[in-house]
């Protein structure tokens, strides 16, 4: 599966548009990660535990989007957009949404 944030794939012709595909993931941040991230905020540095959660959520949303594209018979997704939002009480959960257009190259 070819994935691109651009509307076309250089060197390839889009033969067929299959439609918009999406993938969504919602992950709760636990209090231990919040505690360690808070300590990082005080002493400086990167919040590795949050970065890992962000990567996992993005990967899951992308995987779900690719599965939906494959079910439509697509071999590529163009125009991919990723959105990150905090939701829930006090922003305690992270939502990652991936969307793009499933195509046949």
What does this protein structure show overall?
By secondary structure, this protein is an alpha+beta fold. It has a single domain (1-102), classed as Translation Initiation Factor IF3 (2-Layer Sandwich), CATH 3.30.110.70. The chain has helices at residues 31-43, 48-71; strands spanning 2-3, 16-28, 76-87, 93-104. Strands 1-3-4-2 form a 4-stranded mixed beta sheet. It starts with a strand and ends with a strand. The model has no long low-confidence stretch (mean pLDDT 85).
CATH architecture: 2-Layer Sandwich
Structural class by SSE content: alpha+beta
**Biggest sheet features:** 4 strands, mixed
Q: Give the averaged pLDDT, no decimals.
A: 85
Helix and strand element order: EEHHEE
Rg over CA atoms: 17 Å
User: What's the structural domain tally?
Assistant: 1
Parts with pLDDT < 50 across at least 5 consecutive residues: none
What form results from the Cα inertia axes? elongated
Percent of residues in helices comes to: 25-40%
Topology:
Elements lengths: L1 E2 L12 E13 L2 H13 L4 H24 L4 E12 L5 E12 L1
Parallel strand pairs: 1-3
Antiparallel strand pairs: 2-4, 3-4
In short:
The chain contains 2 helices and 4 strands; from the N terminus they run ββααββ. It is of the alpha+beta class and 105 residues long. The N and C termini lie close together (10 Å).
Brief descriptors of the model:
Translation Initiation Factor IF3; four-stranded mixed beta sheet; 2 helices
């Amino acid at each position: 599966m070819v994935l691109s944030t651009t509307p076309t794939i250089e060197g390839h012709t889009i033969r067929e548009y299959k439609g918009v595909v999406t993938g969504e993931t919602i992950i709760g941040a636990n209090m231990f990660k919040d505690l360690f991230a808070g300590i990082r905020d005080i002493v400086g540095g990167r919040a590795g535990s949050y970065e890992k959660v962000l990567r996992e959520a993005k990967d899951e949303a992308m995987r779900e989007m690719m599965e939906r594209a494959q079910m439509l018979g697509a071999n590529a997704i163009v125009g991919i957009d990723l959105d990150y939002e905090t939701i829930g009480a006090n922003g305690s959960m992270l939502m990652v949404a991936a969307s793009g257009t499933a195509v046949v190259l």
